Amino acid sequence: MNAILELDSATTQGNTEEPFQRYYAEAGPDYAAWSPNYNMHFGFFRRGMNPFSREAMLEQMNVEVLDRLRLDPAARTRVLDMGCGLGASLRSFAARLPFADLYGITLVPWQLEQGRSLNERCSEAKSITLLPGDYERTGLPGESFDAVYAIESSCYGAGSGKSAFLREAHRLLRPGGRIGVADGFVGRGSWRGPQKAICKKLTECWVIETLGDIEEFKSELLRVGFRDIVVEAAQWRVAPSFLHVPWVTLKFLCTAVWGRRRMTRARWNNVLAPILLPLISQPVGPVGYYIVSALRN
Fold first, then answer.
1. Which of 39, 120, 245, 280 could form a disulfide with 88 if both were Cys (CB 3.0 to 4.6 A apart)?
2. So what's the pLDDT on residue 7?
């Protein structure tokens, strides 16, 4: 067996988060209403794109993150998705990196099972391996990847600086390897009125301990050994896809009621969180969307 697959069983089984797993087991299938391909993130809009084509913008976010990893498509590289969901970004990467070995790690058994099933139906996904585990302590060999990335999964790491997540990313990367992160962070600006309470409720809905702070995140990147750090504010690039949320939510609720589907607390939380997000996001609040990339020393 390839050494990269030899995880420490205590690591992959002993540090799971039951609320997090339960949330995605119950609400995870609902993401099909957002993206048939299970791109479980916001999209990236570029000039000339159709703002009504949500899936195209979601796919463009995959492209943007991949571009920042600066991988040679003709090279034999190894890439890790730290919080892979159902592997949609990996399937996107597979079409663009034909010689790469692609890995994803997730804590959620349902995501692992469904992601593997989706990969079996995709001819380009033969290079993808999905693994169970905690991205803060993967049990994978050190210096074994050319690139690691996280699209809207770093927010689930502990602390506002996401220190454990970044330490593990640094450990896993070979010298000269790159990290790419696309996610929501608390940025510049002040909390107003009830916004801190709204943010707390939002993080509870999405089972997030705390949102990352972009300045702390940047400082932590430097501290653990990254350099050439680039922080890009992408709030307005993400906004066109975010405007799809009300329509998708309404359509989902109508479908759920019509189909008499049971709305669990996790599913209601998945509906509520996107409604709360604009109330604390730039320009009315300090929460913004950022793409961060850096080089490992």
1. 39
2. 53
CA distance 295 to 231: 12
The string of pLDDT tens digits covering residues 90-120 is 999 999 999 999 999 999 999 999 999 999 9
How far from 84 is each of 75, 87, 96, 137, 175, CA to CA, in Å?
Answer: 22, 5, 17, 15, 23
Q: What are 263-275's pLDDT values in tens digits?
A: 888 889 999 999 9
Count Cα neighbours of 190 within 13 Å in the Cβ-side half-sphere. 2
> Could you report the per-residue pLDDT of 52-79, keeping only the tens digit for each?
999 999 999 999 999 999 999 999 999 9
Q: Shortest CA distance to 89 belongs to which of 101, 81, 79?
A: 81
Q: What tokens were used for 242?
A: 């975010």
Going from the C-alpha of 17 to that of each of 21, 43, 174, 291, the distances in angstroms are 6, 28, 29, 26
CA dist list (Å): 292 to 179, 230, 252: 8, 6, 32
pTM value > 0.85 = yes
**26, HSE (Cβ side, Cα atoms, 13 Å):** 20
Burial class (CB in 10 A: 0-12, 13-18, 19+), 49: middle
Number of structural domains (the chain) is 1
Residue the block writes with tokens 């058994």: 109
| Cα 198 from chain centre | 22
| Domain around 36 | 3-296
Domain of 239, CATH number, reads 3.40.50.150
- The vertex-73 CA angle with 68 and 79, nearest 5°, equals 60
Q: Are 279 and 198 in contact (CB under 8 A)?
A: yes
Give 15's pLDDT tier (boundaries 50, 70, 90): very low
